[in-house]
Amino acid sequence: MSTIRPMILIAAATLAHANEALDILEADKTPEQAPVMPGTAIPPEDLVYPETVRPGWQTRTFDPVWARAVLFDDDSNPWVQHVAMTGFFEWQAAFGTADVDAVGATPSKSIDLDSTRTRRARLGARIRAFRNTDIEATGEFAGNADYRGIERLSARTEYRPDAGVTYGKFRPRFTAEYRQEPEFSPYPDRSMLVNMLAPATTLGVHFDYRHKDWDYGIGWFSGDSDPYIPALRGDGILALNLGRTFVDMSGDAITRTRWHLDYLHNFDAGRSDSLPRYNVAGRTSANGNQTVASNPAFRHLFSTGFTLEQERFSFLGDFMLGKGDTTAWGLTLAPAWWAVPGCLEIVGRYHYAGSDDPGALVATMGASADPFFDSSPFFIGDEYHSFYLGANAHLYQDRMVLMTGLENVILNDESGAGFNTEAWIWHTGVKASF
Description:
By secondary structure, the chain is mainly β. It has one domain: Beta Barrel (Porin), CATH 2.40.160.10. It has 5 helices and 20 strands. The strands form 2 sheets. A 16-stranded antiparallel β-barrel has the order 2-4-5-6-7-8-9-10-11-12-13-14-15-18-19-20. A two-stranded antiparallel sheet has the order 16-17.
């Protein structure tokens, strides 16, 4: 079966009834995955795999509004078959304090983490052209300079039904969390180590191939980082991806499990602007006012784990490792359960990261837990624990969500100066996308 891209799923029902259009709009897929049709036994070689297994949504009130995102649909047109608008708005607030232990003559202190901000404001389009090419263009309009520019400008061309090539400015595929679009993440932000290790959106090319339940990928990405169009600079990043999807169908119930293995080799370690995608060299940490001598220079990055999805339960497990002039590793365990299917989802996440090197972990806290954006205080240490429990109210499918939750963060600095930190943070926010 041919691969189905996100834009096709968004645009395929322009002239259909609004409910039918939104059935397509709500399902964003990656090149290696698409819906499974339940209820029949399907030979393994003919299976097409789901990105997510969603519960029955409780309300369709806004179906006609969201269906208007599809602007054009004409499969008979030889040049452009589908055009759909895309948009994403995310606002977050965080309230809490980080308590730093006393060290020697330096007394203990509390750091205010209260903050609010528009995390993302995006507008773009998805286009299907020439019957084999899907184009994505997304502009970023929120906040300071780091939040403005071209978030994505890429195309994927299918040169055979089970293979394609993606090219332009886009994110390398690394870890289960970083592959996931932020509008569909059930958490306030990605795990700390994912934000530390994941490369920036940059220019690249990536080939993907699927055979039965296996998918493969290989790509190259530039070492440059720019809010608009990066340059083809340096020796770049080699990306290798391997995955396998298992689908268990019992009656109408579907259980989907996907295992992945990702490896990135950074040829420009110490010289790359895209990996890592932040620079804290010369800056002072909030715990202990410690100056960071140099930015981490990761050469090898590795991730393996799995996602499991059922109608009411899902789980993500991921192990990560970054190695270069410093070494950091970590683990994420993230369950989610629909208390009221389609309306109220209870989510939890435990994240651990460690290193034998002093100050190797760089963590930010507050409404922007990502060191790429410098609006929140950042902390350094060598052992990190985060416990998060929250609830998400889905006002309209995955497209309009109210989020709230409590997070406890413990960051130890035993190998460094000893400025251990603990924080309690209450998160709340809203996401809307089409």
